[in-house]
Structure formats: C-alpha cells, structure tokens
Amino acid sequence: MLRQYELVDRVLDYDPGADEALLNRAYVFSMQAHGSQKRASGDPYFSHPIEVAGILTDLHLDGETIATAILHDTIEDTVATPEEILAKFGPSVARMVDGVTKLSKIEAQSENERAAENLRKFLLAMSDDIRVLLVKLADRLHNMRTLHHIKNPDKRKRIARETMDIYAPLAERIGMYEFMREMQSLAFRQIEPEAFESITRRLDALKEDGEDRVEKIAAGLRQSLSRGGIDCEISGREKHPYSIWRKMSERHVSMEQLSDVTAFRVIVASEEECYRALGLIHRRWPMVPGRFKDYISTPKRNGYRSLHTTVMHGQQQRIEIQIRTIEMHHQAEYGLAAHWAYKQDGVRPDTQIRWIQDLVEILDNAASPEELLEHTRMAMYQDRIFAFTPAGELIQLPKGATPIDFAYAVHTDLGDQAVGAKINGRVVPLRTAIDNGDQVRILRSKAQQPQPNWLNFAITGKARAAIRRHLRQKERSETVALGHKLYDEIVARLPVPVGEDALADALKRLKLPDEATLMDAIATQKVTDAQVMEALMPGSADQAEIEALPPQQRAISITGLTPGIAYTLAECCRPVPGDRIVGVRRPDSAIEVHSITCECLDAAQDAVWVDLAWGEDAEGGIARVAVTLKNEPGALGVVATIIGAHRANIMELRFDTRDTTFHTNTLDVQVRDAAHLMKLLAALRAAEAVSSAERL
C-alpha cells in the first residue's frame, strides 16, 4: 500500500502546483474513517481507496480527482456524512464522492433493480462531471484485481458479469483501452474459467515455440520502414484471452484457425508518416481485403485515432498492424483521461459528450430496471459502423443498425416522424441494415408516429427507448380514454344520477390520486365495476347484492383506439368491423376483443365481459381465411389476383396441406369490414381454381 508521503510525492512529481494540503487531509480523513475495517483479502480496507488513487496518479490526474479516489468509499462504508465531505474538501470533491459512491445500501426487490438504480445515479453524476467515471473505473479495476479473494463463487461471477456488461464498455467508450482490456481479462477468468485456462495455456505454448518470432517480425517491419526513411518504434504482443475467445465465438473457428493472434504497433512522428508507413507496408506485404480501417480520417466516437491493417507475412501468416503517432498512442491508452492530465491546465473536454447525452435520455425514458439495463448496454457496446447524412455529417452506429436507428441518432423528432429512407439515393424500407460508408436520407412526415413493429428492427438503446416511451404514452392516453367510456357506462347503471362532487369523493374512497389514474384502473380492471359504483354512491353495490348488479346499458365504442394498445384483437377469432364483438376483461390486462361466436369464450366464463361496438369509421382488420386450391399451375396466382382486385391485402400466407389433387393455404387478409370479407370469400369460391374458401 502507498504511504501518505509516497502518494503525495507521486502527484507533485507531475503537478508541482497540486494542493498538497488537500491530499494530506483526504488521506488522514479516509484512514481514520475506515479505521480497522478489513477487506476479503485480510488487508486493511483503507488500502483499497489508496490503491485506486495510485492507479489514477499513473494517469496524471488532477488533485481533486485523486482526493475523490481516496474518499470515494467513506460515505457508504463509514460514519462519515456528505456534509462532512463538503465542509472539509469543498463542493467539487463532495459532488464527485457522492457520484462515485457504490450505493449498495439501496433496498431493491431484485438484483436488476439494484444494478439499474446504481447505474442510473452513477450515469447522472457522470454526465455532470466525467471525472466521476474515471474514479469509478479505477475503483472497479482494483476490485477486479482482488476479486479472487472473495470466497463465494456466485458473487465473484455476478461482479465479473457486471464488469463485462457495464464497466468495460464504459472504459472503451472513453478510449481507456488498457483499463478495458484488463477488466475484460479478469472478468473472463471468472465467467468462463475453463475457456480462459485453455486459451492461456495455448498462448504460453505459442510463446515457447516461437519466442523470437515476434521480435523477428518486428525487426523486419522496422527495417522496411527505415529503408523508406521512417524512424519508428515497433512493439508486438499476443491479443489477450478474452479478445481471442470473442473472435473464436464470432467466427465459429478454433484457436488454431485464428491467424491474427499477434498484433504489432508502429509509433511514428507525424500523421503524414502514418500514411507513408502504411504505403510501405502494403508495398512489402499483401493486404488482407476488408481488414483495413482508417480511424485517423474518421475517428471513433471516443476520439481513438489509428490506422489498422492486416497483411500476409511469410508462410501465409496474418499479422495485424496498428500505425499511430505518439499523441494518438497516448489517447488510445488513456482516452478521455488524457484530457484531464494536469498539463492540460484549463483545457477540459466537454463533459456533455453526445453518447453521455444519449445515456441520460435513456434514463429519462426507461420504464423498468430491465429496460434501463438493456438499453444502456446497447448504447455502450462497441462494434460500430460509419454512415453520413446528406449534409456530410458523420453518424456512428452499431453494426446491424437500420435507418430508424440512424434517424434517432440524428434527432428524436426525426426518428418519431420517419416514414422511409434513401440509402445512397435508393428508397429502402426502414428495416434495411446500413453498411459502412452509406449516405442515409430519412423521409419524414409530421403525420407519422412511432410504430410498435419498429421495435423488431431498431437495435440502438436510444431508438428503442424513444419508441417505447411514445408507445407507453399512447397506451396510457388510450387506456384512460377507454376507461372514460367504461366509467360513463358504469354511471349510467347507477339507480340515480350522481352529483358534481361524486367523482372527487370516489377518488378519496378508492385512495387514488387523480381522475386519469381511476380511468386507467377501470380499463385494466384494477378496480371492479362494483367498487366504482360503491365509491360513487355508497350502498349502490352492496356486497350481498353484487351478483344482481344492473346489466350494461349500451355497447361501448372502441373507435379511435388502436389495436394492441388499449385493447387487443383475439388471435383465435380475429374479429373485423361488422362482427358482433364482446370484450373479456382481466385484472392488469388490456381488454381482449372476441367475436361473439368465438369458441374460446367458453373458457372465459370466469372473466368479466363487456359489450363492445366498433363505432363509426372503424379502420378495418385482419381476417384469417382457409383456401383449398386445385393442385395446378397458376392456382395461387388466381387467388392473389382476386384478393388484389377486391382491394384487400395479403399480410401472411402459409401452406398447410398438399397432395396430388388439392392443397390448402391459410391467408391473413386485411379487409375493411365483415361485408368486404364476405364479398371476397364469394369471389374466391366462384373461381375455377378454388375448391373452397372459409373464414377461420
């Protein structure tokens, strides 16, 4: 463990003007606060914050950040209070300590809720000051280095998984690749111990078999570049076990089949020499197609800049080469932390970085802990592509992203109003995958709204969070609207009209905060009709007479409501406008709409039924039809022609049975109403190629 004077001397070595008194106060305060506490290793607990501070001195971070590292566990694990930290160390350190605090004392019902709440508060603090993230990453790195001292294997795996899912991607997103690689290796060792040991053994064997192979290749590279007039530093290393395992999993190959296990780094003096070195290497050794990436002209979102290429080097051996300047290398190793070094005095990066803003937006939109974790992990994972707006702005997206992801990356309003897209001038569906370098133009309409099926192909956390937020708002408004209709029908069944204050009194009796909450509760049957009647007019629905409640007075219109939002159309009978319908109400569920002739209603006798009506200008529906055709060429084409001629639309087609004479197909057909469907069926039955056509 670092002694007090050693830690202070480290900071003063790179920042002679650092506040020595602040560091000394923090050291003494933390040591006294933690007292005799011990870690799982048996070491004094105080050794942990000091080691975290030591990690951050290697990054040459400012005195306030070092003090925060020393104090980061005092609020959670000791009797120290936020007020004490504020009084002794100032508002900046106090704010950062509060942001880094692990928050493990939060009482939650599930592990997901605990992790999500931890992440929520941490990300909000990080958006205010990025140094919170730097301290937290150093804290997690030291915890991972000492993870083997924890005896409980399940706890070790949980911490390792959390590191792999959240903290390693965060380190990558701010360009701290050394932190990312070490956390991934340590976590991989716990999550997949057998794979880790197997890959490590093979790497050790490779080192023994070709101990001088890496140096020989490096010497050959150095000689080729030197002849071209480029003075450089070259180093080679095997990729770490997790990186190798991930490539094996992605490519479905064994380790022996991986030919680019070794990577070489070429450090040159200038950006111009990066490209010159690349040209010399490509002239000397053939490049592997598709493996060249220019992160100098198009840096990663975390600021990473470098040239990557893979070449065939002797005996058909692939080697990966990274070419960069000294400044680029420093940025690649320490990322955003490099901007906080004391030498950059007064120069601070914009903490409201685009991706942090995206994460904060996801926090605002997430409805559950599971959704927050899902969307945040999506937003942080690293495999990315580059696409361009028509104006030439570069947009970075995950691999597999679609125009809907692109639209939300540009602006939330653009995503909400997207109706289509042009990729490289060609009109494509919104579900089309974007390739690297594509130019994307989003076609928009103010009448458009986010659609539920967008969730089937949107892959970014920001897009999915925005879509789900809109759908939740729409579901809430439509559920409240349906609740109002049900409420009006309940009021009509009361023995006498209610007074003006009846609703306010009912809210008090039901202990509900407002009218909208009551309407939502009625629509989802969180409260029964009898409870609402009794709350509006005490005595009108006495418990002894509940069975004799007045019957429904009139059918309730579902016009203006969206299927799948306020109500669902039953899959068993697929009702369409014109069918006589009934709603089945179950607690905490949307009303399920059935045709009155549906056989499944027999199984719903215990549920509450409500008489429904389509209302005027109903928007049509999807009916399921079974069509038996003669087994002859062109028969299915005849059916498609008839359906098209009747202005109906085939949504899905399945082949059910087929023999030498006939084959039966099931079609889901979009029609206006029941009368439209009947005309369509009559036309199908009249066709020579059709043996029968029936609605299912």
Automatic annotation (TrEMBL):
Residue ranges occupied by any TGS domain in the UniProt entry: 383-444
Enzyme Commission number(s) from the entry: 2.7.6.5
A Pfam family the protein falls into: RelA_SpoT
Reaction catalyzed: GTP + ATP = guanosine 3'-diphosphate 5'-triphosphate + AMP
Listed PROSITE patterns: ACT, HD, TGS
Limits of the HD domain: 45-144
Domain ACT: 624-696
InterPro entries membership: ACT_dom, HD/PDEase_dom, HD_domain, RelA/Spo_fam, RelA/SpoT_AH_RIS, RelA_SpoT, TGS, TGS_RelA/SpoT
Family annotation (CDD domains): HDc, NT_Rel-Spo_like, TGS_RSH
Function comment: In eubacteria ppGpp (guanosine 3'-diphosphate 5'-diphosphate) is a mediator of the stringent response that coordinates a variety of cellular activities in response to changes in nutritional abundance.
UniProt family annotation: Belongs to the relA/spoT family.
NCBIfam families: spoT_relA
Protein's recorded name: GTP pyrophosphokinase rsh
Natural source organism: Stakelama flava
